[in-house]
Design a protein that fits this description.
about 100 residues, mainly alpha, about 85% helix, extended
Length: about 100
């Protein structure tokens, strides 16, 4: 039982460290960043896209906005996975190649 308690404490410490590390990376000026981002022409274009999708699909603007955001997140995730797999494949190829000393 002692190992289990030690393990839980270690995991808790690691999780706390991860959160603290992320906290340091976050720019505390998020309000200013959000204001600047919301004033970009791209956000206005997204509003037009939401209205267009809403009208075309006969769904609410909320549903249209969610669909657009979910689609962009899915594309981002797919490309992140692709890049990771490319890196893994490159590493495998490097490891397969005999090193010359």
């Amino acid at each position: 039982m002692l190992e289990s308690k030690d393990n839980r404490e270690s995991v808790q410490l690691l999780n706390t460290a991860i959160i603290k590390a992320k906290e340091k990376k976050i720019d505390t000026g998020y309000e200013e960043r959000l204001k600047e981002a919301c004033n970009r022409p791209a956000v206005k274009a997204l509003g037009v896209a939401v209205a267009h999708l809403s009208e075309n699909q006969k769904i609410s603007r909320d549903q249209a906005a969610i669909q657009i955001i979910e689609t962009v997140k899915e594309l981002e995730s797919i490309w992140a996975d692709y890049v990771i797999m490319e890196g893994i494949n490159n590493l495998k190829n490097i490891l397969k190649t005999p090193s010359v000393h």
